[in-house]
Design brief:
Number of helices: 1
Helix content: 10-25%
Number of strands: 10
Largest sheet: 5 strands, mixed
CATH topology of the largest domain: Immunoglobulin-like
CATH superfamily of the largest domain: Cupredoxins -  blue copper proteins
Shape: elongated
Number of domains: 2
Distance between the termini: 76 Å
Oligomer: single chain
Bound molecules: dinuclear copper ion
Radius of gyration: 21 Å
Length: 171
């Protein structure tokens, strides 16, 4: 069977595009560090999260390893605790693990301008670990529709110079 040269070119081009598209989707799903909120952060009772061994009173905790902190964040209609009424404060040059859960409905926890973005699922603790090198101010937003106040659900995160970080701020 004779296939015309241009037809062969189109066939090869179309097949290449299909392989590229499937490749980018596969990379986005498994290769780029994205994942579903799974059970690595542990499960909690959403009606009493702080009583669970996988969660704590919301706030910043010193992990007693140099420069490592844990931040426990409770998302609820329509605020982050901490984050909304008081900013989350962590020092620069630190590695911070956020443990985020919801105590009512599904919320989102996004640190604007970074790649920190997770869902806050009732009963599950989402964990994300980030390095903050420079002092900076970030906004926090909820990006899962969670009710009539969803658009008002926001907060802030302050990465402060080490000298301005008061160790009494941590638990
Ligand atoms: Cu919380 Cu939208």
């Amino acid at each position: 069977m004779h296939v015309h040269r241009f037809e062969r070119l189109w066939l090869v081009g179309a097949l290449t595009l299909i392989v590229l598209f499937v490749g980018t989707v596969t990379y986005g799903a498994v290769g780029a560090g994205y994942g579903m909120v799974d059970d690595t952060g542990g499960e909690v009772d959403p009606t009493n999260a702080i009583a669970s061994e996988n969660f704590r009173e919301p706030g910043v905790y010193d992990r007693s390893e140099a420069g490592r902190y844990d931040v426990y964040v409770e998302a609820k209609q329509f605020m982050f605790v901490p984050g909304t009424s008081t900013p989350v404060r962590v020092p620069a040059n630190s590695t911070v693990t956020f443990h985020v859960t919801s105590t009512d409905v599904m919320h989102g926890f996004e640190v604007v301008g970074t790649n920190i973005n997770t869902m806050a699922v009732p009963g599950q603790v989402a964990t994300v670990t980030v390095e903050f090198d420079e002092p900076a101010q970030y906004g926090l937003v909820c990006n899962e529709y969670c009710g009539s106040g969803h658009h008002t659900m926001e907060g802030s995160l302050e990465v402060v110079p080490h000298g301005q970080f008061n160790e009494s701020e941590v638990n």
